[in-house]
Amino acid sequence: MEKTTRTMPAHKHIALVAHDNYKPELLRWVQEQKEKLQGHFLYATGTTGHMLSKETGLAIKSFISGPMGGDQQLGALISEGKIDMLIFFWDPLNAVPHDPDVKALLRIASVWNIPVATNRASANFMVSSNLLKSEVVIEIPDYEKYLADRT
């Protein structure tokens, strides 16, 4: 598929997700990075979003719980160019019933070329980058051209 570009805004749209065993770890990370996250638009799956908002006071748009379709809601926003970064503290040692949804979310983030952090170290690198506060041009699939070529 051919490529085109889109410009991520300086105020990023950041999705925050964590499996149950990693919710405390994500909460601790968000508390530590609260100053860097303020001023960006934050989204989360249901349980995680409500917990983070309550504990940190950050404004977070919460969707439904991941297993109930929240992962798919975030994936849809990614494919629409409405999410710029995904921070997903997933549990690599325990299978979850909605594992296909988790894989689909990670796959769609890769398809649309958005930065993904899956642990504390990668999340720290992402929010420490000068790109966090800047407009950033990324390559994405040229889906419009793909459709035009099919007609």
From TrEMBL:
GO terms for biological process: methylglyoxal biosynthetic process. Gene3D superfamilies: Methylglyoxal synthase-like domain. It comes from the Bacteria. Residues 6-151 form the MGS-like domain. GO terms for molecular function: methylglyoxal synthase activity. Substrate binds at H19, K23, T45, G46, T47, T48, S65, G66, H98. Keywords: Lyase. Its EC number is 4.2.3.3. GO terms for cellular component: cytosol. The active site is at D71 (proton donor/acceptor). It catalyses: dihydroxyacetone phosphate = methylglyoxal + phosphate. CDD domains: MGS. It is an enzyme of class 4 (lyase). It holds the Pfam family MGS. Catalyzes the formation of methylglyoxal from dihydroxyacetone phosphate. Belongs to the methylglyoxal synthase family. This is Methylglyoxal synthase.
